[in-house]
Amino acid sequence: MDRPRQLPPRKIAVLFHPKKQATRPVADDVCRWLTGKGISVWMGDTWDEAAVRPRLPDVDMVIVLGGDGSMLRAARMAAEPGVPLMGVNMGRLGFLSEMTPQTWRDVLPKVLAGEAWIERRLMLRARTLRGDMALSEHLALNDIVISRGSLARMVWLQTEIDGDQLATYTADGLVISTPTGSTAYALAVGGPILPPELHNILLIPIAPHLTLNRAVVLAEGAVIRVSVSTDHQAILTVDGQFEVELQNNDIVEVAASEHISQFARVGGRTYFYHTLLERLGIQQVYHNDNIDSG
What we know:
This protein has helices spanning 23-36, 49-52, 68-79, 104-112, 185-188, 271-279, and strands spanning 11-16, 40-45, 61-66, 85-89, 117-121, 124-130, 133-140, 143-148, 155-161, 164-171, 173-177, 201-206, 216-218, 223-229, 234-238, 242-246, 251-256, 261-265. It folds into 2 domains: 11-121 and 260-279, Probable inorganic polyphosphate/atp-NAD kinase, domain 1 (Rossmann fold, 3-Layer(aba) Sandwich); 124-256, Tumour Suppressor Smad4 (Sandwich), CATH 2.60.200. By secondary structure, the chain is α+β, with helices and mostly antiparallel strands. The protein is elongated, with a radius of gyration of 21 Å. The strands form 4 sheets. It has a 6-stranded antiparallel sheet with strand order 7-6-17-14-9-10, with no helix packed on it. Strands 13-12-11-8-15-16 form a 6-stranded antiparallel sheet, with no helix packed on it. The protein has a 4-stranded parallel sheet with strand order 2-1-3-4, sandwiched between helices. The model is unreliable at 285-294 (pLDDT under 50).
């Protein structure tokens, strides 16, 4: 049983990106500022899972400096001990982060004052099977993607939901996404945008040919089983960061994880829509009835 997290936090881990040099000085500044507020702080490398993961059960919150990729790495590590995350966006989009290098000094005092709320997001658990042998098991916050390898050939993906056949996708691949991932690869291949606190699972085919070509929204409890048919090689990708090579007749099973990802937020509950429009570069237009349209 995960121990209850203390909000406002008294123990915080600050993680920087080892290959983005700009994140280290900001991490140093954050640590100094938190220490000055009486917070117990330690700093780590987001990519150094062996060193970071064992220490997470003893902290109340993790602050991550980097882009969405860094947030995804931290989320997978923090899910099992149930530690909330906050991000300082130093990447390109920053869908998952609430702070920037310019705003963290305004946001963190609110967190320490107890004004944060916890947003809980669905995660996926994927198992790959080859006959009776389990090849791998992975946790994902964004998505599990089964796709063709380097050759431009389609794969055949016989897909069952809770033991009943849904479809055999003839396509470049299949995206199995959480609501968090609905603004990532799933969005790029035509899937719907879901609010992050929903606990549904999305299925979206990639470049389907003469097959089901619409996104399917599944309940949280659904179990997806995909049998791969290919005359070359297929790939399983986890959050766009890990790859598993798949062969003909391999099986991929995906279901909601028993763990969730938690994000500490200080913005309003509708922050997601404002952030989405901002990140996509969409200008909000307000109608004014007093304007003479003639």
